[in-house]
Amino acid sequence: QALPIRICAACVAFLIVRNCIAFPFAMAVVRFALVLLATAGALRLSLAPDDERIVLTPQGPVPAWAVLDEDWGEAGDIQAKRHIDPEAQGFKDEARVLLEERVAVGSRPVIYFVGDSLMRHQYQSFCELATGLFPPQDDTWRVPGWKIMHNCSSELGYGVFLWSPEYAADVVDVVRSYGHPEPTLLYVVSAFHLMHMHPNFTMNKIKLKHCARYKDDLRELFDQTRRRVPNVGLTVMTPYAICESAYRDSWADLVKAHQQDPRVATQPCIDDMLNETTGYDKATITDMCSKAWFLRDGSIWIRDMVREVVSSSADLPGGAPSLIDGWAMSDGDCDHTHDGRHWYRFNWLQLSQLLHMNT
Q1: Neighbours of 194 (CB within 10 A)
Q2: Looking at the DSSP assignment, which residues form a beta bridge with residue 57?
Q3: What are the CA-CA distances from residue 25 to residues 17, 19, 73 (Å)?
Q4: Measured between alpha carbons, how far is 196 from 304 in angstroms, rounded to an integer?
Q5: In the structure, what pLDDT confidence band is assigned to residue 45 with cuts at 50, 70 and 90?
Q6: What's the superkingdom here (predicted)?
Q7: Residue 113 DSSP SS3
Q8: How far is CA 55 from the centre of its chain?
């Protein structure tokens, strides 16, 4: 008698998922249904590790380790949150003039924006500048292979955004495989999605690897890109500074715990990584879990590694990469961030700097 009930319950869950997944409240409905079924014994829930799971977001499925609270919930439409003050408007006008000057001498830029939400916001601002239209993030950003990519184009320039939370040496080949032209400029950032607020925003073996290899990954990206495109401009951005005072709820609780005793707060990260097959010893795991906190000190740690790699790359064929110091421009400016880690008001300044550095 219990078997038919369980089968019916599972069918109900399937119908809920199939018919409700397109609605904003679908995730809550699905979670509630699955919990009820699991409690009743009708369904056994088995969660894969974070680096293997796929999470259903309002915009579709994405890898669990790439999801950072509001990044997908905001649907990429940051216009309502952007703070366009007179100074920012001035940098926007300056960036447009620089684009027009490039086009006038026959040097229309093709810019690859590669990274996380920090780079996505600058890409969206570039598109608004080049086309007059701000591209909200939607399902058109998804391409085969679970990749998140978008492009915009006008007579002023061609931009491509590729979601890549870590440095990937083959990024030019990946983007070109989708039919995009060769870049004149590669602009990258890798920071926030390698950090953790464990166990709320977890460390995992992929993030651990890229934290441990951070400087090597960045240098390899520079080397491989210049081999593929010898004359390409290379620019890397440091992360923004962190205003952890803006964190709320469970993240604020972790900030307090870390302030009280960093070793105790870090131990769950260490324990969980020791239980994973990471290929790293306890000393390395302890070091990465301790340094990669999604806090101001963690952003300083990554900033310093970026600066070190750039300063040691003067011998790179084609010239040293340029650096946009997002950390320096945002440090202490906690009044203009809604979440402690994003500053939309700096997008135009960064684009202006990017074009100045790569004329």
Answers
A1: 26
A2: 60
A3: 11, 12, 12
A4: 18
A5: very low
A6: Eukaryota
A7: strand
A8: 16
Contacts of 79 (CB under 8 A, 6+ apart): 134
Q: Which fold has domain 90-357?
A: Rossmann fold (3.40.50)
Task: Map tokens 């010898």 to a residue.
Answer: 230
Q: 237 has which bridge partners?
A: 324
**CB–CB of 164/120 below 8 Å?**
no
> What span, in angstroms and rounded, lies between the C-alpha atoms of 55 and 64?
5
CA-based nearest residue to 316, from 252, 200, 225: 225
Which SS3 state, helix, strand or coil, does residue 143 take? strand
Residue 172, phi-psi category: left (phi > 0), alpha (psi -120 to 50), beta (remainder): alpha
Does residue 29 surpass a pLDDT of 60? Answer: no
Instruction: Return the exposure string of 294-308: e unless at least 16 CB atoms fall within 10 Å of the residue's CB, then b.
Output: bbbebbbbbbebbee
Between the CA atoms of 19, 23, 26 and 27, what dihedral angle is there, to the nearest 10 degrees?
A: 130
Length of the chain in terms of residues written: 359
Spatial contact of 265 and 254, defined as CB atoms under 8 Å apart: yes
Backbone angles phi, psi at 146, to 5 degrees: 65, 15
Closest CA to 134 of 79, 212, 193, 210: 79
Average pLDDT over residues 86-115: 91
pLDDT in tens, 227-246: 999 999 999 999 999 999 99
d(CA 285, CA 266): 11
How far apart, in whole angstroms, are the C-alpha atoms of residue 18 and residue 243? 40
Q: Is 128 helix (H, G, I), strand (E, B) or coil?
A: helix
User: How far is 231 from 323, CA to CA, in rounded Å?
Assistant: 17
List of residues 6+ apart from 329 with CB closer than 8 A: 240, 343, 346, 349, 350
